[in-house]
UniProtKB/TrEMBL annotation:
<feature type="transmembrane region" description="Helical">
    <location>
        <begin position="228"/>
        <end position="253"/>
    </location>
</feature>
<feature type="transmembrane region" description="Helical">
    <location>
        <begin position="141"/>
        <end position="162"/>
    </location>
</feature>
<protein>
    <recommendedName>
        <fullName>ABC-2 type transporter transmembrane domain-containing protein</fullName>
    </recommendedName>
</protein>
<feature type="transmembrane region" description="Helical">
    <location>
        <begin position="101"/>
        <end position="129"/>
    </location>
</feature>
<dbReference type="InterPro" id="IPR051784">
    <property type="entry name" value="Nod_factor_ABC_transporter"/>
</dbReference>
<dbReference type="GO" id="GO:0140359">
    <property type="term" value="F:ABC-type transporter activity"/>
</dbReference>
<keyword id="KW-0812">Transmembrane</keyword>
<feature type="transmembrane region" description="Helical">
    <location>
        <begin position="174"/>
        <end position="193"/>
    </location>
</feature>
<dbReference type="InterPro" id="IPR013525">
    <property type="entry name" value="ABC2_TM"/>
</dbReference>
<dbReference type="GO" id="GO:0016020">
    <property type="term" value="C:membrane"/>
</dbReference>
<feature type="transmembrane region" description="Helical">
    <location>
        <begin position="24"/>
        <end position="46"/>
    </location>
</feature>
<feature type="domain" description="ABC-2 type transporter transmembrane">
    <location>
        <begin position="52"/>
        <end position="243"/>
    </location>
</feature>
<keyword id="KW-0472">Membrane</keyword>
<feature type="transmembrane region" description="Helical">
    <location>
        <begin position="58"/>
        <end position="80"/>
    </location>
</feature>
<keyword id="KW-1133">Transmembrane helix</keyword>
<dbReference type="Pfam" id="PF12698">
    <property type="entry name" value="ABC2_membrane_3"/>
</dbReference>
Length: 262
């Protein structure tokens, strides 16, 4: 356990150093976060930026942003290590590869939160968006992110086997922006599209978060209406499925001797 915690600490520390070292890039990313959100909200709102509508889309945007960072970063970093010839050295660590991947995801989550907090607060203040903090939102967010971790494990596994997965990563993060209810509630989708949307990693999390944060529902209420149960099932399914895909892809790459090849 101490080795795992040390590896997690080292990964977070490394990313924080990189974050501080490349301030210009961080500033551009923060600007991208703000402009992208305002642009999306402008079109979703029919040319208007109104606080109630912004409060609704901001929750979905935050969850999608976490998904975007996680999906694009995990696979690309494995590919980068394979190109640099250091991936096999990573596998020589006493920490299992899957645990290393989860540690990286946690580190990405920490850095993404640091990057996101300032523009998020700025958007809330400038546009007078009102949120009532509910502690129930914390376990809902963590449960949503756990399912996202499982999905990212599957993407990482694909990177080990197929190497070039940029198109896959772009496709999945774009699908999540438009099909998970991040911009428009899933209730407004046609039935067939809603059925597809409900199987994606972050859809149920966005639904439950909106119920808790905007509609002031308790955990008991969202459990009673089945939305929290659906989120739990979705997250557990993605953790299991993502782990299976990662271990299978890892075994294939080892068997083919292509782990460190690009």
């Amino acid at each position: 356990m101490s080795i795992i915690l040390q590896a997690l600490y080292n990964e977070i520390h490394r990313r924080l150093i990189l974050l501080w070292s490349y301030k210009f890039n961080v500033c551009m990313q923060v600007l991208e976060i703000v402009l992208l959100y305002i642009g999306i909200s402008f079109f979703v709102g029919g040319g208007r930026l109104e606080a109630p509508q912004l409060a609704n889309t901001l929750l979905g945007y935050v969850i999608w942003f976490y998904a975007r960072i996680m999906i694009l970063s995990t696979g690309s970093e494995l590919i980068g290590e394979a190109q640099a010839g250091t991936l096999e050295q990573t596998y020589m660590s006493p920490v299992p590869p899957a645990i290393l991947m989860i540690g990286r995801m946690l580190a990405i989550l920490v850095v993404a939160t640091i990057m996101f907090i300032i523009p998020l607060c700025g958007i809330v203040v400038v546009f007078h968006i009102q949120y009532n903090f509910h502690w129930e939102g914390i376990p809902v967010l963590l449960l949503t992110l756990s399912g996202l971790f499982g999905f990212s494990l599957a993407i990482s596994g694909a990177a080990l086997v197929f190497k070039q997965i940029d198109a896959l990563a772009d496709l999945t993060q774009n699908l999540m922006l438009f099909l998970t209810g991040a911009l428009l509630p899933v209730a407004l989708f046609p039935d067939w599209l809603a059925a597809i949307a409900n199987t994606l990693p972050i859809t149920q999390g966005i639904i439950v978060l909106r119920s808790v944060m905007l509609n002031n529902k308790t955990l008991a209420a969202v459990w009673g209406d089945g939305s929290l149960i659906a989120l739990l099932i979705n997250s557990v399914a993605y953790i299991i499925l993502g782990s299976i895909i990662f271990f299978c892809c890892d075994a294939i790459a080892r068997r083919n001797g292509s782990l460190g090849q690009y």
